[in-house]
Amino acid sequence: MLDIFSSFHIDWKILIAQVVNFAIVVFVLWFFALKPLSRKMQERSDRIEGSLKQAEEIEKKFKESEEIRQEQMTQTKKEAQEIIQKAKEAAQKEGLLMIDESKAEARKVIAQAQSQIAKEKEKALQEIRAEVADLVVSIAEKILQEKLDKEKDKEIIQRAIKSVKL
C-alpha cells in the first residue's frame, strides 16, 4: 500500500492531517452551522405545522359558527313570521271588535233616532188632534151662529170635512 501512496505522490502524514482537519471542519460546521440550522428549520416546521393546525381549527370553528348563524337566522325568521302572523290575527280580531262596536253604536244611534222620531210623531199627532179639536169647536161655533137651513148645513159640513181631511 505504500507503493500506491508513493506512486501517486501522497504523503500519509499529510493525508492523516488533512483527514483530521476535514473532521474538525465537519465537526465545527456541524456543531455551529448545521445543528443550529436544523434546529431552526425544525422550529419553523413545528411552527408552520402549528399554524396550519390553528388555521384548520379556525376554519372548522368558522364553519361551525356559520352553521350556527344560519340556524339562528332561520330561527329568527321563523319567530318573525310567527310574530307577524300573531300581529295579523290580533289586528283582524281588533278590526272585528271595532266593527262590532261600530255596529252596536250604529244600532244604538238608530234606536235613539227611532225613539226620537216616535216621540216627535206622537207630539205631532197630539198637536194635530189639538188643532182638529179646535177646528171642530170653531166649526161648531160657526154652525151654531148661523142657524141656517138644511142645505147650508150640508154645505158647511162638507167644507168642514174637507178641511179636516187635509
SSE diagram, text form:
Blueprint: H1 2-7, H2 12-145, H3 150-165
Task: Provide keyphrases for this structure.
0% strand, mainly alpha, 94% helix
Description:
The protein is 94% helix and 0% strand. The protein is mainly alpha-helical. The longest helix is centred in the middle third of the chain and has 134 residues, at 12-145. It is rod-shaped, with a radius of gyration of 64 Å. It has three helices and no strands.
- Helical content (DSSP H or I, runs of 4+): over 70%
The low-confidence runs, each spanning 5 or more residues with pLDDT under 50, are none
* Approximate shape: rod-shaped
Q: What fraction of residues sit in β-strands?
A: under 5%
What's the quick description here?
The chain has 166 residues and is mainly α. 94% of the residues lie in helices and 0% in strands.
